[in-house]
Amino acid sequence: MKPFTISNAVAVAVVASFGLTASGAFAQNVNWNLSVWGKPRAFTKGLDEVSRYVAEKTDGKFKIKVHFGEALSKARENLDGIKLGAFQMAAFCASYHPDKTPTLSGLDLPFLPFGDLDVQQRVHEAYYAHPAVVADVARWNARILMTSLLPQYEFMGVGEPPKTLEAWKGKQVRALGGIGKAMTKLGAVPTTSTAPETYQLLERGTVYAASWPFSYAHAAYRLYEISDWYTGNLSPGAVTCPVVINTKAWDKLPKEYQDILTESRLPAYEVLKKAYKAADEKNLPMFKEKGLKEVRYSDEELATFRSVGAQPVWDDWVKEQTAKGLPAQELLDLILTTAQQGS
Which domains are seen in the chain, by residue range? Predict the structure, then answer.
């Protein structure tokens, strides 16, 4: 199947007629396609679980096929494909194209108070439900099903390890969203690249280091093969990569299918959390076996980084997005207050 592009979009969706028989059994088959980049990995375990769950709960009548490796669309164009109805579901990272969904960039801010993935899940779900976010995503004929619940980012790179924060000055790094903004406070030069592009950038020396969800992504995209070191406790934040549904496809589903698909996100979250934990248990010893040096910073250094990379970046974001007519302060307050609930 040829990759989807804006210039030659071809709908691959097949949306059947739906309904239940009088006995309650699902009457007809429903086949959906879901676009994601890269190979199967921890990040995609949630997608697999959604597919498994809906098939099981509908006796195999509702099937969602997960297409890997940009088979349906380039990573930067998944949201465009959803808008055009080229496929019914897709994952995308808002930081790949922040201007497309500016409200979502609030979840990409650095040093948000997510103590663990449970807190992050609670915040993301509340944030996605905000009317401004719903309206923003709806412009792309999309509705959000769930978050990919990415762990905190760390850097992996080549050459001399950055043993002090000053060592980042002048270094070009792959850092998305607010993480990139925070790194500029250290004098680094951030660049945005999709996950599939990053290996070559590091291999060619175009970037000094790349930040990714630690540790699964560094292993999934084999960065450890060409790297010399990694940071173990910088933890500047994470980005939001929601899973979205085409609204027209959603509207054609009967309520029973809608309910099952909505329910599927909860077991998917649990699968994701276990997958990320398992990845760490496997990858961290492997990184050490490969001879990679772990860089850790003192509490004083981390406090310094947060003092310049957290609130100042948040304030800049609020000012910038408010000027665009978005309720930025309200959205930031929602993040902070929701993160405190239950703590």
Answer: 1-96+140-147+241-263 (3.40.190.170), 153-237+282-340 (3.40.190.170)
